[in-house]
Amino acid sequence: MTVITPTAESSTSIASFVRKISLVQIAAVAVAAVLIIFGAITNNFFSLSTFQGILNTSGIIAIVAIGVTFMTLSGNLFTLSASVTVLVLGQAFLEIVHFGPFPAILIILLLGAIIFGLQGWLVGRLGANVIIISVAAGFLQQGVAEYLSGSNPSILAPAGVTSYLWMRNTYGGILFSVWAMFGVVILGELFLRRTVAGRQIYLVGENRAAARTAGINVKRITIIAFVAAGICIAFAATLEAAYTQNAYSQGSYTFDAIVAILIGGTSVLGGKGSLIRTMFGALVVSYLSQMMVMRGYNTPTRVFVEGLLLFGVVVVMQLNDRGRS
Amino acid sequence: MVTESVLRAEGVVKHYGPVKALQGVSFDLRRGEVHALLGHNGAGKSTLVKTLTGSVQLDEGQIFLDGQAVSISSPSEAQSNGIAWVDQELTLIPNLSIEDNIALGGMESTFLAQRKQHRPRVKQLLEQIGLGHLSPTQEVGTLSIGERQLLEITRAFGRNSKIVILDEPTATLSDFEIERVFAAIREVTAEGVSVIYVSHRLEEIIQICDRATIMRDGQVVTTQEISGLDKSALVNLMVGQLPEFAEVQSIAKEGGNGDFSITNLSINNFVQDVTFGAKGGEIFGLAGQLGSGASLILRALAGLEPKSSGRVVLSGKQFRLGSTLRSRKAGVYFVSNDRKGEGLFLTFTNSRNLTATRLPILAKASIISRSVLKKSAETLMQLAGVDKSRRTMTVDSLSGGNQQKIFIGRNLNHPKMKLLLLDEPTRGVDVKGRAEIHQLIREASASGIGVIFSSTELDEIMELSDIIGVMHKGKLVNVEMRGQTNAAKVFNEMVRESEIEGVKA
């Protein structure tokens, strides 16, 4: 299930192939085998509707996770306020959607870019710690949102406005958010592989000092990575608000995104990984929880198993990194 | 018994994938001898050392310690067998004290709890290597790189090891410090410790070693007594034949776009009022021992030293120091002496490393095509003299010399470059690689750009420079054309130790 995707450039020689058959591959095959076997012994699991379900529950999470992956690749770990931003921008979207869906989406994307761009500026320019900055930014956003909404925690969709409801429809049995996820992955990968800034994100993530000495504008690249994250998260916020028709719960996007990134196998240290990996990470999580729902496990058990999987991934990646160096 | 063998390796074979790093190597080390391990990069020295220290496992063959067959499966096992290894990479922990660093990884695990008791021993070790002026409680982070290297060496000697492996121990040391290392080596070998000495510096090997094992292409060419050999004999054994030095006359292009002048450059209150300049097409060599400020000058020009001031004019345009981006915009490209820390992207392919500095140039409207990248990387590999088939290999799979070629190569043929700065361009590189890198630098210079390099090695300064500037304790003490000075004079200006102390006394 966790497909090994090449990073920006794959290596083809036999030597490096042999060298790369590693713990990670073995673990990935093992996890895939377990998932398939348990799927097979779960009644009706391998059916079209199950897989539609898996996809349909992954779209928005995957888009958030893909956004955060830009930060991870640039060597800036994660944001701890993705959930808050999704909530706040979702509220904002519902407030302004009567202007028409496209202007509203554009404004929200711009807001997302600004919110994360500022955080990127603080991290890149002042060398602030990304974790602390993202927590502080989370509180700020929540404060501003509560002030503006008059401490009314739930904002409902405007009555009578239907122009944006195509965003919550299914097309071919698949939710719009899933098609959007594929679109984001394709655009994001093109950006990372084919543009100067995208390739520089990898270089900065791999070795910041070397990137600086090589004359790369590390601050600018840090901000660009954050802005890309902000745009993705803002987009996810519009999809979430359109789908649920309200915006009052934060959801667990922050941690779901981190889980998807780690399970996908993007290096926490930066420089290695891809958006496709993160997408598959999100799908694996979704597959796992769908399977456990169908096997009748309760929520605590599901969270526990997810935690176990994540733990295993972290251990395997750690051992693998050590083996390589 | 002088000829008693403490360590013997027989028929050692090691493959890395399809690459045969060692092809049936046999080697023996006698008690109390200093045994040189020689060969150019990729000859198999490092791999042999790694099998002896348990860092890599051998595929075939056997290692004997004191005649007993042993298998060394980890570095800690090597240590408990009395084998200590001082790697090229420093392994000290900067924010621990000297004494704690010496205790770290040592056998006596209770050492940390008994600092005071062991302090005399630590002092003695420091004295032995010429670091007597330091306090055992001083943090290692406050020491210079040379001092840290000395500390590594004395730590290895202090472990009651039977065998100490020194890998390029003097690469970062001044001549004075090297003498200290030699004295320490003589002291421990007199007590029966054996030393394996891996180095490219042939003079040192002739001076300190008893025997030499010369390796080429994963095999042992010969093991010989040093006393019958001189430098050129050693070189011949190492490379098979001497590389042809084409006599390169660099062409100074009047008014080339690499003309530069530096006026009243001061850095960190250490380098003071340094003024020099040269024309495009000339190679300016900054000679100086470690800590002389030569390296600082290059870093400041690259924009890496925030506390620097002075007037720098490149190709008729002045630019302000203190920012890597401003320096880059002015056309300054820098090859750091820290290839791994601030040079290469180690786990990325050669191709990605070579194109790292020129992505904006290769792009059209910020979009990069894969074929353009590939073509550029191939051209640069050819220029740098690294086999094109290695394009998609990661750069950390290359030998040190080839890594350095990739590092320099990514700055070659760069349309926006006006001044190339190289800090210790051939540190830790073998004779052949060094000649090739010098050739690269000469070719780059011949294109009309300005070149400044710094080196602590007199030979390199004399070989490569058109103009020689000598740095000593933060001051530029002399600038002369190479033709108007000689090695002895430059050396005296670099060292000046006795003279300064004489004035003080």
Question: How would you characterize the overall build of this protein?
Answer:
The complex is a heterodimer of chains A (325) and B (505). Chain A is mainly α and 325 residues long. Chain A has helices at residues 14-20, 23-40, 48-73, 82-96, 101-126, 130-148, 176-194, 196-206, 208-213, 218-244, 253-264, 275-294, 299-324; strands at 155-156, 170-171, 174-175, 246-247. In chain A, the strands form two sheets. In chain A, strands 1-4 form a two-stranded antiparallel sheet. In chain A, helix 8 (196-206) crosses helix 10 and helix 11 (253-264) packs across helix 12 (275-294). Chain A is globular, with a radius of gyration of 20 Å. The relative contact order of chain A is 0.20. The relative contact order of chain B is 0.11. Chain B is globular. In chain B, the strands form four sheets. Chain B has a six-stranded mixed beta sheet, sandwiched between helices. In chain B, strands 16-17-18-13-19-20 form a six-stranded mixed beta sheet, sandwiched between helices. Chain B has a four-stranded antiparallel beta sheet with strand order 2-1-4-5, covered by helices on one side. Chain B folds into two domains: 5-239, Rossmann fold (3-Layer(aba) Sandwich); 260-342 and 416-504, 3-Layer(aba) Sandwich (Rossmann fold). Chain B is built from 19 helices and 20 strands. Residues 241-248 and 497-505 of chain B have low confidence and may be disordered. In chain B, a hairpin with a 2-residue loop joins strand 19 (467-472) and strand 20. The longest helix of chain B is centred in the middle third of the chain and has 16 residues, at 175-190. The chains are: A mainly alpha (325), B alpha/beta (505). The interface between A and B is large, with 33 and 39 residues.
